[in-house]
Fold these 2 entries.
Entry 1:
Amino acid sequence: MSQDALVKRQFGHRARLALSPAGVLKTDDQAHAARTMWNLLHAWWQMMPKEKRTLANADAAIRQAREDIGFLAVLPAQAAQAVLKMYFQAWKNCWDGRAGAPNFKGRFRTVMSVDIPQGRDLNIVRVHRRWGMANIPKVGRVRFRWTKGLPVGKHANADNRITGARLIKDALGWHIAFRVQTLQGKPEPHQGPDIGIDVGVSVPIALSNGERYEHGEWLTGKEKDKLLHLEQRAAQRKQYRKPGEPAGRRLHHTYGQIRLNRSISGEAWGRTVTMLAYKTARHGGTLVEVPAAGTSRRCSACGHTTPGSRESQAVFVCKNPDCGWSGNADYNAARNVLHLYRMGRALIPAAGRAVVRRAKRVKPAAAR
Ligand SMILES: [Zn+2]
């Protein structure tokens, strides 16, 4: 494979760290020092006149702080540099409109983390089928669960390597997120036919060629339990309502909660579309979205939208006297999606191979 047929790909890989109690304390201290460093930088920034807020001046200020404030020395110099870089990046993100202005980091609302910006400092070795060892600066060699082929040792080279890592503490303790860079074969442009896709919230993904795909669970187990519980409660409250009486405040609240929970499945829908776009691109295709309006009411056989055509959720029956086609409703919608794309109705104009219908999102009632 020639060099120009390869593309760089960057991804993260997380693994839990098996730190000793002393190692946990040392890493905690580093994270507190990193947060303090950030806060010192922010205070410095606010004090400085605009023209003196340069990277070189900030660097000098944090070097001075590391000499003056004893406990900041626990933070490795590379990690301190990473804080500086991240702080300036935060301002850049703000100026480019991607994020709000940086702020002080509070003791309890900040995720504890330490950056290891240089991959070579990690000195990763696989010691067992299931365990790897990494060097955590100023903490020592630490074991981590080996779950995936990381490019280390003889598998590492200039193009396939670990470029750095970040230590992050969550409810279960410290883990390490490796930054992995690989060079992979570029996919050949896809030569297959255009396919229309209908993605509903509660039905399988329907394709215009008649195929159907089950997608993963929209809601997590917990979300599902909550939704079920709310629906049961609404049914219960309805029982106590006398006929003709308007729904009470509590029932209204429960309905609102149900709608809010259903909107979560709308988010899951977005995740599926994102994944679809990513997978399509990796196989040389393109995903294009078209507007959803009318795709479930139009007959894909005759092209007419006749009033009363859609009979039920599952079956589409055309009421046009000259047509009378009937079939699976989602298949019909997927064919309409493809038709819209061929008519140039793409929301993002691009030469595409796959088309997806934008489903209606449920707006949370309780918002605002
Ligand atoms: Zn028809």
Entry 2:
Amino acid sequence: MNKVSLGFMLLVSIVCTLLSVSALASAPSLKGELTQGSLIRANISPGAQVWLNGNQIAVSPTGEFVFGFGRDAALEHTLEWQLNDTKQSMPITLKAREYDIQRIEGVAQKYVSPPEAVLARIRQDNREIANARATQSQLKDFLDTFIMPAQGRISGVYGSQRYFNGEPRRPHFGLDVANQVGTPVVAPVGGVISLAHDDMYYSGGTLIMDHGFGVSSTFIHLSKIHVETGQRVEQGDVIGEIGATGRVTGPHLDWRINWYKERLDPALLLESEALDN
Ligand SMILES: [Zn+2]
């Protein structure tokens, strides 16, 4: 082989290497605790596609995306991404959590075993909640730092296994903040109101707010609601007031975070000092 063709082949191989490198997206950067109940916010090269456990996830035009793991999520997951031709992947391993047991006495019996007559109403409430949480929007408020939506004493945490009047019921998925009826409830980050209902059976005055890409906040047991469906709200705006409506034993706000149907832990989104009140 002469020198010219050797030089040409070297050049070709360098160019090929450069091209294949430019077709690879670097691994996404993830923000959030890798544990059950966690919301993970992430960034990747714009234009890349992303899959979690084989299911495609929406990515913003500037490369942001988000996903979450439920209370009892499996511990091993796979994140894949692809820019142009090459699909790459990384494992995600979650830390398992332990949850408290919470026994609540003095709950009105109609909330422990709802009478036949209200079952249709409960199903209708659940449909409306599911529809609101299925909202797909391009809002990017979920990227902001969340603040506590109300002042008060933390009276319930995410994940507790619950017994009402001694009977086992579903775990608790919210962060409870106890305070007087009328205490203001503010938006923890911006968003758009996707549900405003002043009297659901279990949850009483209920608000759901879309923060984008499947992330939503739910606020329940409200005494008053100050916003309406479709309204844009900014972080810190008053959206309602703490109440004692629905299945409660005293006035409190129950704040929940969802990624679509996955129920996540709001406390993991707050700076730790926000919880020390
Ligand atoms: Zn609660």
